[in-house]
Amino acid sequence: MPEPILDLFELEKAWSEEQKETVVQIRRFVNQEVLPIMQEYHNKGVFPKDLIPKLSKLGILEAIEEIDPITYGLTLRELERGGSEIRSFISVQGSLVMSAISKFGSEEQKKKWLPPLGKLDVIGCFGLTEPDFGSNPSAMRTRAEKFSGGYKISGSKCWITNGTLAKVAVIWARLGDQIHGFLVETDRKGFDARPIHGKWSFRASDTAEIFLDKVEVPMTAILPEANSLGAALKCLNQARYGISWGVIGAASHAFEETLKHLLERPQFEGKPLASHQLIQNKLAWMATEITAMQLIAKHIGILKQEGNLKSHHISLAKMNNCRKALEVTRTCRELLGASGIHNEYHVGRHMTNLETVITYEGTEHIHALVLGQHLTKIKAFV
Ligand SMILES: Cc1cc2nc3c(=O)[nH]c(=O)nc-3n(C[C@H](O)[C@H](O)[C@H](O)COP(=O)(O)OP(=O)(O)OC[C@H]3O[C@@H](n4cnc5c(N)ncnc54)[C@H](O)[C@@H]3O)c2cc1C
């Protein structure tokens, strides 16, 4: 049985037997298959593609429509224990690409794409951000134009997860006055995905810049029900929900590693570091924050199950849990001393990854503005 997660409020007891089994299954997978290889791939700066068939066997996304929100959240939490890169790979595939097709696609699109995407036989990516428009995608420049055979799409997308692995890209583009979603096969003429090098966060994730030069797609490539930026934002909300759960995995894994080290390393009169008051103060703070993150995740899970989850709830959860996870991992880094900057521990990788997670899918500022608007009824984005 793998070691259980830090659980001061004994929240794990409340999960159904099926949910508990999911936690054990994914935790075991992460311990055996993910954690042993991540530092090597982080150093190499490439995504561990060998994990794809193994992740496929877990069957996480095949039944995504039927999985209850808490089981999905627990799955992402356990995956992110192995690394935000792996959780992100699954989140983009499930919460962004598959969710765009199942929410806004035609029956033919669903039949064609959802089964191979669910099995990870086909990888997808989600192209919303552009080099000049990140927090404000409504100003995007990528355009689609109708022609006799379908649409021609031109423009560029930046920072796209799974970008070079993808066989199909959900590309958001302007068509007339509206923003629409298109399913673009990446082997089409004029489509070019180039890896972004030089990252110090998400090094083991596939991040690409995408160039579209009059890429021709058939009429059937447009997502018929995605006629505004709101459609893209609905997919993002699904992904942000998963992030709020996922980051608990990264923070609690960093905490586990750090606590073990503090109990084992003696300093000053042979006493373990864990016996010093200042250290215990930091451990208590971290455990409290992780517990608060767990409570928030559980509660948004319940709200989602009841159909009552609203955008400002998701913004609160994404904003709080990413900030606190980042602060926890920074604190762990500090408590590990020099070892904290070394690959022997996963803490540094979790910490640098969380700098991405606090930035993508709406930065902390953007979520604060969503919450601010809810509180004041005043839009303060511009
Ligand atoms: C590793 C990685 C993977 C990613 N994967 C994807 C993906 O798969 N698909 C995709 O479409 N995108 C992806 N992104 C892009 C990500 O969503 C954007 O980076 C993010 O939305 C922020 O945009 P930006 O980087 O252009 O920052 P900017 O929008 O330029 O913001 C810079 C700073 O200004 C602040 N700011 C912006 N506007 C305001 C305002 N009105 N008020 C106050 N502060 C403001 C921001 O909070 C931030 O601190 C990824 C990014 C990274 C790093």
Give the distinct bound molecules: flavin-adenine dinucleotide
Instruction: Give the overall pLDDT as a whole number.
Output: 97
Q: In this structure, how is the largest beta sheet organized?
A: 4 strands, antiparallel
Query: What is the CATH C-level name of the largest domain?
Result: Mainly Alpha
CATH superfamily of the largest domain: Butyryl-CoA Dehydrogenase, subunit A, domain 3
- Which fold does the CATH topology of the largest domain refer to? Butyryl-CoA Dehydrogenase, subunit A, domain 3
Portion of residues within helices = 40-55%
Count every beta strand, where a strand is a DSSP E run of 2 or more residues. 7
Radius of gyration: 21 Å
Estimate the strand proportion.
5-15%
Structural class, judged by helices and strands?
alpha+beta
What CATH architecture of the largest domain do you see? Up-down Bundle
Point out poorly predicted stretches.
none
Distance between the termini: 52 Å
Order of helix and strand elements from N to C terminus: HHHHHEEEEEEEHHHHH
Total number of domains: 3
Task: Work out the helix count.
Answer: 10
Shape: globular
Detailed description of the structure:
The chain has helices at about 15-45, 50-60, 70-80, 85-105, 105-120, 230-265, 275-305, 310-335, 345-355, 365-375; strands at about 125, 145, 150-160, 170-175, 180-185, 190-195, 205-215. It is built from ten helices and seven strands. β4 and β5 (about 180-185) form a beta hairpin. The protein has a four-stranded antiparallel beta sheet, covered by helices on one side. The chain has a three-stranded mixed beta sheet with strand order 1-4-5. The chain folds into three domains: about 10-120, Butyryl-Coa Dehydrogenase, subunit A, domain 1 (Orthogonal Bundle); about 125-225, Butyryl-CoA Dehydrogenase, subunit A, domain 2; about 230-375, Butyryl-CoA Dehydrogenase, subunit A, domain 3. With about 375 residues, the protein is of the alpha+beta class. It starts with 16 loop residues before the first helix and ends in a 6-residue tail after the last helix. Flavin-adenine dinucleotide binds near residues 127 and 363. The site of flavin-adenine dinucleotide (FAD) has 21 residues, from β1, β3 and α10.
